[in-house]
């Protein structure tokens, strides 16, 4: 789950001359994307993360005259961002996925009921972190492993300070003393919190094999077959692609389902897209393959329906989290509609 090298020591000689208020934002700009990733991992919401990064820069600008240069500008920004997240979590709570709320549903034919009041975990577009390298040589590289949906979901079940400790120690590689100073606690308390957080996340840890890129021909073929099966509303073909104990969940509906049979019954009974009425556009979320599923309305264009984030095994689909919400399509830079005569893959 490591994203970078050891954090800057808070007691080391200054590596940055204290910036003035006029040039602070320019000097802080290269860290915006990694701060966004950090806030997303803390909050489980790309919308909240963007707001908190903006708040971090505003707080930094206001406090520029108090930055003494004992640590790097990057470390100082992370301290502000982490504290901003901890304050926000107090009022906003955690963001779960349906599978984190209880047992799977045993009745796939029963109509699912939306739970709009639950602040659900949100996916994040890979494109938000691609194609730009921070200038600081110690800066975090946003790796796929630290952004995985399962990991971010598991983090939501940790108490906020444990969440912060785990991310600062394991992902950002801060020293225990640095984390203790940020959280106004002792090194012993930080080490204890890290042990408890590791124990709670043990089942969510991902191996390097799990994190392999889906670029080999077999996995590319698996993704192509998945897209074609949904476009054709071919339930039997869809289910053949799933692992025997695969999981299907779809926020904002709290019901979730485990196993091929349950998933087949759910899609067959409740998916409104008929044969030839679907269109799948490939994208990527949380370091994982994803598809935007569009539904063709009678006599009209394809309109947004679901955003599928897939967890792949060696030769099957292990989990699908299907998110609803037109705002997610906009966040991912996906079209709000696709012409009826669009090329169907």
Q: What is the helix fraction of residues, given as a range?
A: 25-40%
Structural class by secondary-structure content: alpha+beta
- Unreliable residue runs: 8-15, 132-141
- The dominant shape is globular
β-strand percent reads 5-15%
Q: How many H/I helical runs?
A: 12
The whole-number mean of residue pLDDT values reads: 86
Cα Rg:
22 Å
Question: What is the first-to-last residue Cα distance?
Answer: 35 Å
Q: How is the main sheet built?
A: 6 strands, mixed
Order of helices and strands: HHHHHHHHHHEEHEEEEH
**What is the number of E strands?**
6
Order of strands, main sheet, comes to 2-1-6-5-4-3
What characteristics describe this protein?
alpha+beta, six-stranded mixed beta sheet, about 40% helix
Explain how this protein is built.
By secondary structure, the chain is α+β, with helices and mostly antiparallel strands. Helix content is 39%, strand content 14%. It contains 12 helices and 6 strands. It has helices spanning 21-28, 32-43, 46-62, 73-92, 149-155, 160-171, 176-183, 187-200, 217-231, 235-240, 260-270, 326-331, and strands spanning 242-250, 253-258, 278-285, 288-296, 302-312, 317-323. It has a 6-stranded mixed beta sheet with strand order 2-1-6-5-4-3. α2 (32-43) packs across α3, α2 (32-43) packs parallel to α4 and α7 (176-183) crosses α8 (187-200). It is globular and about 65 Å long.
């Amino acid at each position: 789950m490591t994203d970078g090298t050891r954090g800057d020591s808070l007691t080391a000689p200054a590596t940055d001359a204290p910036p003035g208020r006029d040039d602070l934002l320019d000097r802080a700009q290269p860290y915006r994307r990694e701060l966004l990733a950090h806030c997303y991992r803390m909050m489980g919401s790309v919308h909240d993360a963007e707001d908190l990064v903006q708040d971090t820069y505003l707080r930094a600008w206001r406090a520029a005259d108090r930055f003494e240069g004992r640590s790097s500008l990057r470390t100082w920004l992370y301290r502000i961002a982490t504290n901003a997240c901890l304050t926000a979590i107090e009022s906003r709570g955690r963001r779960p996925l349906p599978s984190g709320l209880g047992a799977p549903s045993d009745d796939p034919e029963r109509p699912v009921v939306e739970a709009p009041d639950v602040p659900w975990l949100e996916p994040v577009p890979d494109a938000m972190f691609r194609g730009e390298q921070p200038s600081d040589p110690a800066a975090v590289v946003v790796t796929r492993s630290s952004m995985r949906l399962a990991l971010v979901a598991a983090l939501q079940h940790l108490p906020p300070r444990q969440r912060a400790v785990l991310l600062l120690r394991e992902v950002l590689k801060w020293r225990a003393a640095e984390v203790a100073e940020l959280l106004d606690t002792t090194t012993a308390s930080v080490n204890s919190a890290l042990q408890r957080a590791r124990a709670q996340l043990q089942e969510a840890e991902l191996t390097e094999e799990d994190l392999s890129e889906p670029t080999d021909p077999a996995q590319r073929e698996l993704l192509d077959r998945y897209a074609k099966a949904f476009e054709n509303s071919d339930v039997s073909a869809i289910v053949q692609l799933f692992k025997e104990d695969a999981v299907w969940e779809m926020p904002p509906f709290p019901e979730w389902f485990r196993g091929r049979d349950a998933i087949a019954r759910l899609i067959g009974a409740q998916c409104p897209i008929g044969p030839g009425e679907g269109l799948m556009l490939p994208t990527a979320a949380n370091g994982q393959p994803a598809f935007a599923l569009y539904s063709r309305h009678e006599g009209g264009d394809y309109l947004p329906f679901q955003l599928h984030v897939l967890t792949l095994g060696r030769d099957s689909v292990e989990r699908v989290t299907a998110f609803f919400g037109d705002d997610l399509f906009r966040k991912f830079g996906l079209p709000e509609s696709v012409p009826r005569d669009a090329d169907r893959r």
